[in-house]
Specification:
Blueprint: H1 3-29, H2 47-77, H3 94-105, H4 114-138, H5 146-174, H6 208-226, H7 241-252, H8 261-291
Helix pairs in contact: 2-3, 2-4, 2-8, 4-5, 6-7, 6-8
Length: 292
């Protein structure tokens, strides 16, 4: 083989051999880090300020997704402890329920419980995001499995602290006129104003696994929070988690645990995206201000 042929062959190898390896390297480097292994730390933000930024971000997202939360609560309470077909169905799906609530309760009806919902989102997600950020600052997330443990612990802590607000929010979102009422009507008067007149109907195909997995637990928590209580402040309908699950399955069938899955499915993606988007933007802006 002549030297000219060798040069031609090496030239072809550089085009058809080196280029794919370069593409493969760029593809591998594009895989996000920190999902299963150590995560690279975010720019440092003062933990109390990060708490406030996380709370504000999730409250902003809550304004857009609260109408879906109202519909989800109504669908989960509809036909409580009643066999399928033995009760009147006021709500038959996400869009129809949004239309019924808006037509009967007005636009404000779609934002019922927003004021206390903002408190719930602010406390729960402020604690959740702030705690996770604190774990990042301590270096816990730099270890294998650290991100998973930090996220689980921060989420559990936030849900525990914000649980009372979720109870009040559920009561308020269940309240409506008798014509379309479902579940027990507590008729609370909440000192706040629901002046946010905006709603977002999102149609994104995402979060299927989360919706299927978490909806039964969400239904049970809604039933437990909304049930009437006796003079000893104990529930009249359910004695606990397992008792509620058993009674729902016996009276409403297994599908009773999946009431309201439509709004859960539709709400999940936009709320998560908006929360993380607002949080990231505010953190970046805070870092820029601190560096200037």
């Amino acid at each position: 083989m002549t030297s000219a042929q060798l040069q031609k062959t090496s030239s072809k190898e550089s085009v058809f051999g080196a280029q794919p390896s370069h593409r493969m390297a760029s593809t591998v480097s594009a895989v996000p880090r920190g999902v299963f292994g150590p995560s690279s730390p975010h720019p440092a933000v003062w933990p109390p300020l990060d708490f406030a930024l996380g709370a504000l971000a999730c409250c902003t997202a809550c304004v857009f997704t609260n109408p879906l939360e109202v519909v989800k609560t109504r669908l989960q309470l509809q036909g409580e402890l009643r066999a399928r077909g033995s009760y009147q169905r006021h709500y038959r799906g996400v869009l129809q329920a949004l239309w019924v609530v808006g037509r009967t309760d007005g636009i404000r009806g779609l934002q019922k419980g927003l004021s206390v919902g903002l408190i719930y989102q602010g406390v729960m997600n402020g604690v959740r995001l702030g705690s996770y950020s604190y774990c990042e600052a301590l270096g816990i997330t730099s270890f294998h499995g650290g991100s998973l443990l930090s996220g689980a612990g921060a989420g559990a802590l936030g849900a525990f602290i914000a649980s009372p607000a979720y109870l009040v929010k559920t009561h308020l979102q269940a309240q409506t006129v008798e014509a379309i009422a479902v579940g027990h009507q507590h008729n609370h008067l909440w000192l706040g104003s629901n002046r946010w007149l905006t709603a977002l109907i999102a149609a994104m195909i995402s979060g299927v696994a989360v919706a299927v997995t978490m909806t039964p637990f969400d239904v049970i928590s809604t039933r437990l929070y909304n049930q009437p209580v006796d003079e000893f402040r104990k529930g009249r309908l359910y004695h606990g988690f397992s008792d509620c699950m058993l009674k729902v399955c016996q009276a409403e069938g297994l599908l009773g645990l999946y009431k309201g899955m439509g709004p859960v499915f539709v709400r999940l993606a936009p709320h998560t995206v908006l929360s993380m988007l607002f949080w990231d933007l505010m953190r970046d802006q805070t870092v820029k201000v601190n560096q200037s």
